[in-house]
Amino acid sequence: MKDEVLEESRREMEQALAAFRHEMSRVRTGRASTALIEGLSVNYHGAKVNIRQLAGLAAPEARLLVITPYDRSSMHEIEKAIQQSPELGLTPLNDGKVIRLPIPELTEQRRKELVRYIRKIAEDFRVSIRNHRRDANEMLKQFHKEKEITDDDLRVTEAKVQQFTTEFIEKLDKVLTAKEAEVMEV
């Protein structure tokens, strides 16, 4: 039972860290990354469709994204979706075959706003990891109360859960530090 609790808490913490990494990949830095637009939904023939299903995405240069629609009739809708996306703040350039998205330099003020934003996201994920720790400890205490595990097992297992928590928060902080450096890089 205690092993199942440990395994479950570790898995949940790993998922939280993976979700944080994914969220960080979507934060715009000075460099072009297809992750910036991968989550974009396009109104295609009356249905919301992910841009990845409508076009090939590439970042051939540090400050340029290129979108190559599989169906040229979707070009206008893709352009429209990019223009209407306030979090992107990018202007698409259409040459009839591909859509180019130049990524402008970030201002110092915008960089600082992004750092504040990613720190807030990081804190939310830290809280999530701590919540997984709390849930695991509550389950362990319940097992102890029902006499399914001993006092020693409870202490040892709680210490392991705390060790997982510390480990994943440190990993999260490393990802955060790297992203902050990437955002502040000129």
* CATH-derived topology of the largest domain: Topoisomerase I, Chain A, domain 4
Q: In the CATH hierarchy, what is the architecture of the largest domain at level 2?
A: Orthogonal Bundle
The percent range for strand residues is: 5-15%
Helix content: 55-70%
Whole-number mean pLDDT: 87
What is the topology?
Elements: H1 2-25, E1 41-44, E2 47-50, H2 51-54, E3 55-61, E4 64-69, H3 75-83, E5 93-94, E6 99-102, H4 108-145, H5 151-184
Helix pairs in contact: 1-4, 1-5, 4-5
Task: Explain what the structure shows.
With 186 residues, the protein is α+β, with helices and mostly antiparallel strands. The protein folds into two domains: 103 residues, Orthogonal Bundle (Topoisomerase I, Chain A, domain 4), CATH 1.10.132; 69 residues, 2-Layer Sandwich (Gyrase A, domain 2). Helix content is 59%, strand content 15%. The chain has five helices and six strands; from the N terminus they run αββαββαββαα. Strands 3-4-6-5 form a four-stranded antiparallel β-sheet. The protein starts with a helix and ends with a helix. The model has no long low-confidence stretch (mean pLDDT 87).
Question: In short, what is this structure?
Answer:
This protein is of the alpha+beta class. The chain is built from five helices and six strands, in the order αββαββαββαα.
